[in-house]
Amino acid sequence: AFWIFLNRRKVFDVAHVLDRTDHINRRYWRKRKDIPKKKPDLSPAAITELEHSVSAYYRERQGRGRHCHVDKYFRGDRYHYFFAYPQDYTDTFVGYDDEGQFERRRQNPAFEVIYMYDPIDGTLDLYAQGGKDIKKDLQELFGRTILREELGEENSDSQPYELNGLKKRGFAFPTEPA
Prior knowledge:
Blueprint (H helix, E strand, L loop, with lengths): L1 H6 L1 H14 L6 E4 L11 H19 L5 E8 L3 E8 L4 E6 L5 E6 L5 E6 L4 E5 L4 H16 L31
Helix pairs in contact: 3-4
């Protein structure tokens, strides 16, 4: 790991980003299972269009997102990750510089929106803070810009998990005695 850190820094940085994604709070993730199973548009023009779409979405609705950058990664010969970093509200850093001098400095942080598309299963996982309407809108932006499809309303039968059957008294869970 240390050799990779020293000699292949980009690989190390990408591995860190993907590992952090695996351990991010599941509260803000949303899975949609009725996505078209097709090859995504990974062209620079499509990525730029996604950047502009996410930026415009947040700018119009929340007054932030003036700029946006998208990184894309391919993982496990299957999963397409898109990390969007829209600009957040301007904030003031209060702290110390490298020489120990107290300072107040304006900063323009970014926040994360993560898409994970699986073209084999036709699923789209989305990480974004906010309610279900925001997540629905962001999924539609992804469909329009990367898949070149209108996703429309989510199929109500496409819930990722159906656990209500476990509540029924007659539910059988046969297991091998061995």
